[in-house]
Amino acid sequence: MKPETNGSKMPSILVTGGAGYVGSHTVLTLLERQGTDIDIVVVDNLSNAYRAQGQKQPEPIRIIEELTDKTIHFYDVDIRDKDGLSKIFEHHDIESVIHFAALKAVGESVQKPLEYYQANITGTCTLLEVMRNFGVYKLVYSSSCTVYGEPENLPINEGHPTGRGLTSPYGKSKYFCEEIMKDVCRSDPKWMIVSLRYFNPVGAHRSGRIGEDPSGIPNNLMPYISQVAVGRLKELQVFGNDYATVDGTGVRDYIHVQDLAEGHVKAVKLFHQPGFGGFHAVNLGTGTGYSVLQMIAAFEQVSGRQIPYKIVGRREGDIAENYADVSLSQRLLGWRATRTLEDMCADTWRWQHNNPNGFKK
Ligand code: NAD
Ligand code: WQD
């Protein structure tokens, strides 16, 4: 491991996976919200982030530095590399960690379970071990509504059972990591872990300079729609219109990535609250669900582009409907999503339209 920038002994937040979609928006929000009194250290192995030839920083990080005029300490390190991580902890005064780094493609995880368990579970355990070795006990974890499996009731609150009927190694890895973190918190009262269960993140920073840039054909709805709108893909396949929902298509709780990013800033603030400790799982959603057809209509309205689509059979493992009970996030974090569906579509479209090929020029 070679440090790419000079270290500093300023109080720092370590962001794993900070060059990825949610991580980069959170890094930008941290820099916009915090004063100059905190350093951001990013660790990312670039397995799902782009660095242009000859550049030190991955593109999202380079652009964030440009937008904020601040320096980010970036390390091309895998979170399973204990020595590499330890050197970073030696080099910086890490106060807390926000842990995004993971593999996240549900379908791929069924084909490559060992790679997913290695990256997501071994990676998380290695990070927790290094944190403990350096006396750092504050962690915000990227979890997912996927840990709930098929909803037994809606809206889903954090008391809903988790881990039941999970079909993908990806989903199981998020559930197993939560269980591991609960045990770690039981073992030592110094730990403070906030596990944020995201619903469906979409959108981009309002600048249109950073956004979601999936490699290959997108698996998720919003990037698929926006690539159809920009002409990269011909037509959207709508997976099923025979669900017991408003119009038969799947309903999800889409949340603007900037709202999500602000939720992380609030979670980090909790660490300074007197008496705060232990493991806390918190939903991050809007509390409102939209169907696939409603998403298409909203995107067409905002972009002025038609989205050709065809109804096909259901996608294996899909659920009909899902949306969050957001009362705990309001109570515990003092946070709620403020951006509308129109904002989500407009910001996605600005990013996609300005960068039809994502970060690659
Ligand atoms: P992303 O792939 O854009 O970002 C993840 C980043 O982690 C990438 O930059 C990748 O290069 C890096 N990474 C992966 N494995 C690593 C490793 N072993 N060591 C170091 N870096 C590594 O994904 P995202 O959408 O930003 O998701 C971030 C987190 O949020 C993930 O943990 C994901 O499971 C979780 N999550 C995402 C969604 C979603 O729909 N985007 C929903 C719920 C939860
Ligand atoms: C949304 C809706 C599809 C694509 C996934 C993960 C989950 C979490 C969030 C990480 C569904 C429909 C989609 C397409 C379609 N990620 N659809 N045509 O499935 O809710 O959740 O991302 O933790 O774990 O499973 O999101 O965007 O894939 O689908 O009709 O080409 O759009 O059937 O109803 P999903 P999605």
Give a structural overview:
It is a single chain. The chain is 37% helix and 17% strand. It is α/β, with parallel strands linked by helices and 361 residues long. It has one domain (11-354): 3-Layer(aba) Sandwich (Rossmann fold), CATH 3.40.50.720. The strands form four sheets. Strands 3-2-1-4-5-6-11 form a seven-stranded parallel β-sheet, sandwiched between helices. A two-stranded parallel ribbon has the order 7-10. Strands 8-13 form a two-stranded parallel sheet. α3 runs parallel beside α5 (113-133) and α9 (292-303) crosses α11 (341-354). Residues 1-6 have low confidence and may be disordered. The structure holds nicotinamide-adenine-dinucleotide and UDP-4-deoxy-4-formamido-beta-L-arabinopyranose. Nicotinamide-adenine-dinucleotide is lined by residues 16-17, 19-23, 43-49, 78-80, 100-104, 119, 123, 142, 144, 198, 201.
Keywords for this structure?
binds UDP-4-deoxy-4-formamido-beta-L-arabinopyranose; binds nicotinamide-adenine-dinucleotide; Rossmann fold; alpha/beta; 13 strands; two-stranded parallel sheet; about 350 residues
List the helices and strands and how they pair.
Layout: E1 11-16, H1 21-33, E2 39-43, H2 59-68, E3 73-75, H3 82-91, E4 93-99, H4 106-111, H5 113-133, E5 138-144, H6 169-187, E6 192-198, E7 200-202, H7 221-229, E8 236-239, E9 251-252, E10 254-256, H8 257-270, E11 278-284, E12 290-291, H9 292-303, E13 309-312, H10 327-333, H11 341-354
Parallel strand pairs: 1-2, 1-4, 2-3, 4-5, 5-6, 6-11, 7-10, 8-13
Antiparallel strand pairs: 9-12
Helix pairs in contact: 1-2, 1-8, 3-5, 5-6, 7-9, 7-11, 9-11
The structure holds nicotinamide-adenine-dinucleotide and UDP-4-deoxy-4-formamido-beta-L-arabinopyranose.
UDP-4-deoxy-4-formamido-beta-L-arabinopyranose binds at residues 104, 106, 144, 146, 171, 200, 219-221, 224, 236-239, 250, 252, 292, 315, 318.
